[in-house]
Amino acid sequence: MTRPAISSFASAYRNDLGSDAEAQASKTLKRTTMMLVGFTMLFVYSCVLTLSPAELLAAKASNLPILSVFAERTDSAVFSWLAQMVAIVAICSSFFGLYMSTREGQQGMIESSCVAPIIAAIRFIMPVYATKRVASMRQYEFAANIFSIVMGTIAITGFIASQLL
C-alpha cells in the first residue's frame, strides 16, 4: 500500500467535500503548482536578466549563489543578509517536506509488517555500505558510520524480536 505525498491534503478534502474531493483537490493543486512555478520562474528570469553572461559564468565558477553576486555587485549588506535568510528558509522547507513525506510514508508502510526491516536497512545500513563500495562516496567514510550500522542492526533486531515474541 502506498500513500501519495499529499495524503494529509487529500484526506482533509475527502472528509470535507466527499465525492467532489478529487475535482477540488486537482483544481487546488493545479493553482498552487502554477503559483509556485510562476514565482520561481519570475525569480530565476529576473536574476538571469539582471546579470551579464560573464557575471553568471563567474558565479558558476566560484559556486556562488545569485544573491551573493548581487551583494558583491552593489556592495549592499542587505543582499548578503537576504542570501543567508533564503538559504535557511530553503533548508528548513526542504527538511520539513522530507520529514513530513517520510513520516506519512512510514505510517502507511508500517501497516505491512515486513517493510520495517527494509526501511531500517535502507536508512541505516545502505549508506554505510555505499561509502565502502562506491568510489566517489569514500570521502564520507568515517568511524562514526559504525554508529549508523549499530542503530540499524538494533532496529532490525528489535523488529524481528517483536514479531517472534
UniProtKB/TrEMBL annotation:
Keywords from the named record: Cell inner membrane, Cell membrane, Membrane, Transmembrane, Transmembrane helix, Transport
Keyword Ligase belongs to the record: no
UniProt feature coiled coil, ranges: none
TM helices/strands, residue ranges: 36-58, 78-100, 142-161
Main location: membrane
Membrane-topology descriptor: Multi-pass membrane protein
Record localization: Cell inner membrane
InterPro entries hit by this protein: Amino_acid_transport_2
PANTHER family according to UniProt: SERINE TRANSPORTER, SERINE TRANSPORTER SDAC
Protein name as annotated: Serine transporter
